[in-house]
Amino acid sequence: MSQEIRNLEPKQLWNKFADLNAVPRPSKKEEKVIAFMKDFGKKLGFETIEDEVGNVIIKKPATSGMENRKTIVMQSHLDMVHQKNNDTNFDFDTQGIEMYVDGDWVRAKGTTLGADNGLGVATIMAILESTDIPHPAIEALFTIDEETGMTGAMGLKGGLLDGEILLNLDTEEDDEIDIGCAGGVDVTATRSYNEEETPEGSVGYTITVKGLNGGHSGMDIHKGLGNANKIMNRLLFDSFENFGLQIAEINGGSLRNAIPRESVAKIVISTVFDEAFVFDMQEIIRDIKAEFKTTEPNLTIDIQGSDLPKKVMDLGVQEGLIRAIYAAHNGVYRMSPDMADLVETSNNIARVIVKDGELSIGCLTRSSVESSKQDLANALRSAFELFGCEVTETGSYPGWTPNVTSPILDVLVGIYEKQNGSKPSVVACHAGLECGILGTNYPDMDMISFGPTIKGAHSPDERANIASAQKYWKFVLEILSNIPLK
């Protein structure tokens, strides 16, 4: 761990972030970070609770003179998205994140940084450990598995928390205050297929799509970024139509909440069409790269000769797969008619796997309107069921309905204006925050979300702005001093 991170201001925040990032914490494998957080709370002498799903709650009494203020819940999630570049040798299960300073930013070496939501966790840790920061009674809530299903928030039962105000520290623009968010559902299509012997007189190729930006499938879905699965499917569709391409394997994308950056397909072509196939593919690649030259300047598409696979997909299923992925919606489905520039509904075709007689297509569908979310999920289900897939919808979670009359919103807006001389943007976001879920068991809790500026979340380009962290820390301290009376 670079000492230069620990020397950044505010040191309380960056030191706790460095401590946290030394602990492996992939979603659904949070055992180490849960133990780390429980040990942290107990060493401070505070009541520390692990609930039945693995969330950790640490309760700290009010500082002197603040006992008459409302109890607050400070909340962030412990898990992080694990993404790395193909040429990065890194084991997320055993290694801590390797950070460095790059000008005005903190980055990681070839991996995600974990600032989402590690800077929020580190903030709460610093407040809990402090002896000179005024604050009301605090219930620190560290949830698990936010990134792959929000099962921690879903599993948190009513009655564990007494706080009247919740400060969620999971927003990624320091001039924004979030008062609402999208809900989501995982849509997964699966089926078996027959494999056939590779025809005689065939040649093998490996097609690789890489170099895409990727990014957060909620916050970045409106940016026109390339989706590796859709680009790959476009290549496969054309060559199947024109040259009878046959698919042996596809491995595209990774996590549902990350826009796919890479896809690899192993295919075969009849030797009769070999030369024409290569020529045609180069023309299509030029067209695609020209379309994405602004948003995806580093996109590369490689066609390389490879060993001839022994088996290929049944042609009937292959045709259904290619046409279904072409038909399945990806990207923005509907913009909000009520809030300017807010994506209401979207879908990310996140994962495509074809291998050994089994195929799977994984999507994450988001919307701030429940009926619109279901409408798009139905459209996807229809496209996939038409070629014989079994389609399941799992992990559904609700959105967070904006409350423009929130008392804590007034407090934060006033402090922001006083500190910065301008108004913050009061927004709803298309990402999935845990507030909507937590509100199901704590419906009377006044909730707000804010945070420091983080770019490129869910990708190896993730970076945290140093000046923004300083601005945000100052904001947090003033909020704690101005929590309303009971």
UniProtKB/TrEMBL annotation:
SUPFAM superfamilies in alphabetical order: Zn-dependent exopeptidases (SSF53187)
GO cellular component, one term: cytosol
A Gene Ontology biological process term: proteolysis
Needed co-factor(s): Zn(2+); Co(2+)
Domain of life (superkingdom): Bacteria
Documented EC number(s): 3.4.13.18
Annotated CDD domains: M20_pepD (cd03890)
Pfam families assigned to the protein according to its UniProt record, in alphabetical order: M20_dimer, Peptidase_M20
Alphabetic keyword roster: Cobalt, Hydrolase, Metal-binding, Metalloprotease, Protease, Zinc
InterPro entries: Peptidase_M20, Peptidase_M20_dimer, Peptidase_M20C
One GO MF term: metallodipeptidase activity
Metal-binding listed as a keyword: yes
Domain Peptidase M20 dimerisation: 208-293
Catalyzed reactions per annotation: Hydrolysis of dipeptides, preferentially hydrophobic dipeptides including prolyl amino acids
Family: Belongs to the peptidase M20C family.
Protein name (Swiss-Prot/TrEMBL): Cytosol non-specific dipeptidase
Higher taxonomy: Bacteria, Pseudomonadati, Bacteroidota, Flavobacteriia, Flavobacteriales
